[in-house]
Amino acid sequence: MKNDITLILEAASFAAARHSQQRRKDAEASPYINHPLALADILAREGGVEDASVIAAALLHDTVEDTETSIEEIEDRFGKPVATIVAEVTDDKSLPKEERKRLQVVKSATKSHGAKLVKLADKTANLRDLVATPPADWSAERRAQYFEWAREVVEGLRGCNPALEKAFDEAYASVLAVHPRGSEGTIA
Description:
The chain contains ten helices and no strands. The chain is an all-alpha fold. The termini are far apart.
C-alpha cells in the first residue's frame, strides 16, 4: 500500500508522462499537465480536500479520455479507489460530443463524492482558464456556451464541498462581470 504522498507524486509523474506531448488550446499552447496540477491545487488549497485518492484521481482525470491509458492500468498502478473516480469522470469518446455533454449534466448528481469533487475542480479550473487564457480559436459565443454548460453540470454537484462551490461561483461571477446575462438569462 502506497502512502498518501507517494500516491500523489506517482500520479503526478504518470500524468506528466502521459500528457507530455499535449498542449492546452490557449494561444501560448501551455503544457497540458498544468490543467491536472491546477485541479489538485484547487482541491487541496481551496477545497481543503486531504483524501489522497481524490487528489491522485484529479491528477489522472484526463489520462483515460485523452491518452492511451486504460482504467485497468490506472487501477493496477493506483488502486481501485482512484480508478473508480477516474472512470466516473471520464467521458465515453465513442459518443458524439453533444451527447457526452448532455450526459455530464444528467449524471452529475449521481456521481460519488470523490468524483463530484474532481468534476467541480475541473469545471472551476476550466472557467478560470477560459477567462485568463481562452482557446485561440474560440469565439465569445462558444466561451459563453461553455460557461452556461459548466454551470448546468455544477448544479448537480452542489452540496459536496461549500468551499469548492464558492470557488466555482466566483469564477462564474468573473465571467458575468465581463459578459452580463442577456434578456433570455444566458451570458451575452
